[in-house]
Amino acid sequence: MTKLEITNLAVEVDGKRILNNVNLTVESGEVVAIMGPNGSGKTTLFLTIAGHPRYRVVNGDIRLDGESIVNLYPEERVQKGILLALQTPTPVPEVRLSMLITAMLNKKMGKHITDPPSPQTLAQLTKLTTELGLKPEHLGRGVHAGFSGGESKRAEMLQLLMYKPKVAMLDEPDSGLDVDGIAVIGKSIAKLAQEGTAILVTTHHAEILHYVKPTKVIVMNKGEVVHQGGEEVVKTIENMGYEKFFRDVLKITQ
Ligand SMILES: Nc1ncnc2c1ncn2[C@@H]1O[C@H](COP(=O)(O)OP(=O)(O)OP(=O)(O)O)[C@@H](O)[C@H]1O
Ligand SMILES: [Mg+2]
C-alpha cells in the first residue's frame, strides 16, 4: 500500500512564488484528477513532486509512505517509484525507446542497466506496444524522436505500464490524442490504478474521465487548491467554464 501525502506545500520557481498551501493525498489504486485553468500550477506541482531542481519547496512537505522526499534527487524519487509523464515529453533521439524501458526495468530490479530483457519482458513490451496503438518500429526509434503528439503520449503510457510505478503523475495524458487514443490511454490509466499504482492526472477535458473513474477531483486556481469534489465537478466545469465556476459557485473574487 502506497501513500503520497502533500501538506501545506509552497513552491518558488526562480524566486517567484507559484504554489501556496497545497494539500493533497493519493493512495494505491486511487486516481486523483487535478483540474484548473492554464497557469494555475498543475505542472508546477508535478515537477516539484518529481524533484525538478528549479522548483524550490519553501514550506510544507511531500511524504511517500511517511518519509519526506523533498531533499531527494529526481533519480532517487524515480528509484522510490515516483514517475512523471510530462505534458510535453522531451525527445532523446540518441536512446531507443526499447533501451530506455529495458534500462528503467533493470534499474528497478537492481540489475545492470545494459542487461538484455527477459523473453517475458520482451513479449509484454511487444503486446503493450500494439495494444497502445504503436508499431513495433517505434521501439527501435529514439525516445520521442519524430513521434507525433499522440504517439508520444502513447509511448509515455507504455513506459508506465511496463514499469508499474508506486506513484504515477500524468500531465495532460489526453492532449493531442484522437478519440481512439483517449479511450486507449483512459483504459490504461484505469488498469494501472487497478494494479495498485497511486495516480495523479491533470486534464482539461471530461472525456478521459469516462474511462477513468476518479476517486476525487481537485481544482486549482492561482497556485492553490480551491475545491475538492467527485466526478460531478468535471461536468460542472465543462458546462460553466472556470471563470463562472469560481465566481458563482466558489464565490472567489478574482
Ligand atoms: N520560471 C518561471 N518564472 C516565472 N513564472 C513561472 C515560471 N515557471 C512557471 N511559472 C508560472 O507558474 C504558473 C503555473 O504554471 P504551470 O505550468 O504550473 O500551470 P498549469 O496549471 O500546468 O497550466 P496549463 O494548463 O497551461 O498546463 C504560470 O503562471 C507560469 O507562468
Ligand atoms: Mg501544465
The level 1 CATH classification of one domain is: Alpha Beta
Total DSSP helices: 9
CATH evolutionary superfamily of one domain: P-loop containing nucleotide triphosphate hydrolases
CATH topology of one domain: Rossmann fold
> What would CATH call the architecture of one domain?
3-Layer(aba) Sandwich
What average pLDDT do the residues reach?
96
Beta content: 25-35%
Q: What brief labels describe this structure?
A:
254 residues, alpha/beta, Rossmann fold, 6-stranded mixed beta sheet, 4-stranded antiparallel beta sheet, 36% helix, 29% strand, globular, binds adenosine-5'-triphosphate, binds magnesium ion
Brief overview:
The chain is an alpha/beta fold.
Characterise this structure:
The protein has 254 residues and is of the alpha/beta class. It has a domain at 3-90 and 165-249: Rossmann fold (3-Layer(aba) Sandwich). Helix content is 36%, strand content 29%. It has helices at 42-50, 74-79, 97-108, 119-131, 136-139, 149-163, 179-194, 232-240, 242-249; strands at residues 3-13, 16-27, 31-35, 55-64, 67-68, 82-85, 92-96, 142-143, 167-171, 198-202, 216-221, 224-229. The strands form three sheets. Strands 6-9-10-3-11-12 form a six-stranded mixed sheet, sandwiched between helices. A four-stranded antiparallel sheet has the order 2-1-4-5. Helix 3 (97-108) packs parallel to helix 6, helix 6 runs parallel beside helix 7 and helix 8 packs across helix 9 (242-249). Magnesium ion is lined by residues 42-43, 87, 171.
